[in-house]
Amino acid sequence: MMSLNDGIETNQDKKKNPILKFWWVWSIIILVAIGILVPNLIIQKAMSTNSVTQTGKNKIVKVGDSVTQNGVHYQINSVKYNTGTKYSKPDDGNQYVIVNITIENKGKDTVSYNRYNFKLDDAGNQTSFSDYLTGDDGKKVVNDILGSGDLAEGGKVTGSMIGQAKIGEKYKLVYSGYTKNYKKSTITFNLN
């Protein structure tokens, strides 16, 4: 059965259309706002977790100081020098530099460590910590060589690294690695 109003637009129909259009405008505004805010929040969080926290503002990091970067805590415990033994002789004009370091994972993600991520900087000449030192008695002078491995949340490792550098120079320990997001991470410690 057909009504007299079939096919004829009424005033009630005209009033519904602006409300529907208004609802779509608000939906679009909300979606755009979410699209702008969420990436900015993610970027801000990433920037805050990649910052270096030092014990003191603008302080030169040196032996005894500590640095936390990307959830990993680094502390240089000691630096010792050795001019060689009858079994282990450094290159002419060099001495052995023995650096003892503690690395602790204060973050939630597992992190890797490796002594080859550290370099001994002697006036710009950066060399690996790849030396071993045997005493005059034929025994190792350093028994706690830092190797490589992974640290779970709360994990901690302490070990020593041995390298060679020119006698009388200012030495630096330079850590260079990558975060889990493949961003380069560098820390420099003054050793003397």
From TrEMBL:
Keyword Protein biosynthesis: no
Keyword field: Membrane, Signal, Transmembrane, Transmembrane helix
Transmembrane segments: 23-43
Gene3D superfamilies, alphabetized: 2.60.40.1240
Residue ranges the record marks as coiled coil: none
Signal sequence range: none
Positions of the DUF4352 domain: 62-178
One Pfam family from the record: DUF4352
The protein's name: DUF4352 domain-containing protein
Organism annotation: Pseudolactococcus plantarum
